[in-house]
Amino acid sequence: MAEELIANAPLEQYTDATDMDRASIAADIAETAKRGFAYVDGQFEAGVAAIAIPVRPDQAEPAAIGVSGDVSRFQDPAARQHIIDTLRECAKVVAGLL
C-alpha cells in the first residue's frame, strides 16, 4: 500500500532541498519508521528544520507532535537528541489524553 501511495502521490518541489525522487522518498519513510521520528531540514521551507514524533503509532487514527524552527537550532546532535527525547515524553502525555 505504501509503495502505491508513493508511486501515485503528486510531488511538489517547495525548495531546492525538496526530495523529488520516489525511491529516495520511500527509503526516507522506511528510515523514519525505523528510528521512530521524522526529521526534515529545509525540504519544505529553506532554513527551517522540524522533528515529529508519533503519538499513538499503533492506532488506526494517526497523530503526531512536533516542533520546527531555524535550522541552526537543530544542528547540534545533543540538542537534536534533547528535542527528540522531550517530544517523546510529550507524546506519552498526549496519548494518555486521547
- Percent range of helical residues: 40-55%
Major pleated sheet: 3 strands, antiparallel
Terminal Cα separation, in Å? Answer: 27 Å
Number of strands: 3
- Average predicted confidence as pLDDT: 92
Shape: globular
Tally of alpha and pi helices: 3
Q: What structural class results from the helix and strand content?
A: alpha+beta
Order of strands across the main sheet = 1-2-3
Low-pLDDT stretches are none
**Rg:** 14 Å
What are the secondary-structure elements, in order, as H or E?
A: HHEEEH
Describe this structure as you would to a colleague.
The structure is a single chain. The protein has 98 residues and is of the alpha+beta class. Helix content is 43%, strand content 18%. It is built from three helices and three strands. A three-stranded antiparallel β-sheet has the order 1-2-3. The longest helix is centred in the last third of the chain and has 21 residues, at 77-97. The mean pLDDT is 92.
Concise structural overview:
By secondary structure, the chain is an alpha+beta fold. The chain has helices at 2-8, 22-35, 77-97, and strands at 38-41, 48-54, 64-70.
